[in-house]
Amino acid sequence: MKTDDLISLLANNVAPVDRHAAARRYGVGLLLGALGAIVLTLAVFGMRPDIGVMLHTPLFWAKVAFPALTAAAALRTLLRLSRPGTPVGNAWALTALPVLVLWVAAAAAYGLAPAGERMPMLLGTSWRSCPFAIALLSIPALAGAFWAVKGMAPVRPRGAGAAAGLVAGSIATTAYCLHCPEMGVAFWAVWYVAGMLVPVVIGALLGPRLLRW
């Protein structure tokens, strides 16, 4: 068989590539992870009793916006890390942007507060449990994110695992806002971020083992 004939034969038998397969895979994995985080929040911790009032409070939506924007930025990074040959570029820097904005706002609020109010502002009433609660709630989303990435072709599994962990931690933090009574920016800047970093570390450690292909 001539080379040209072989190429034509192979080309004729190639099935078309579904361009939306990756989007559907990530959509299913992260949607199930988010639903799992919400169910866990309500089952383990419960809804904050004043949620109706909070829905009309701008500060509450600022609190929700931080992890939601971080999740969106981390997902962008994860999508790039999932595809061989796709440059990461400034994706990590953009992922860190919501955290940096929060830290600036927290530093300003902390600096302007009277000295006697600074520690209560920083610790709130739940600093001991907050990071562990977020880590627990991140489990469903971390499993969903790893399942989605596993179906792709990540060539940097440690980085992909860390990005998947950040997506999961951000989704978990967003769900945790339904329960968490803390409304201090300084509290979010320390303890929310600490909780989100737990699945990042777990994802980075598990990535080389679970995301190989």
UniProtKB/TrEMBL annotation:
It comes from the Bacteria. It holds the Pfam family NrsF. Keywords: Membrane, Transmembrane, Transmembrane helix. This is Anti-sigma F factor. InterPro entries: NrsF. The chain crosses the membrane at residues 26-47, 59-79, 91-112, 132-149, 161-179, 185-207.
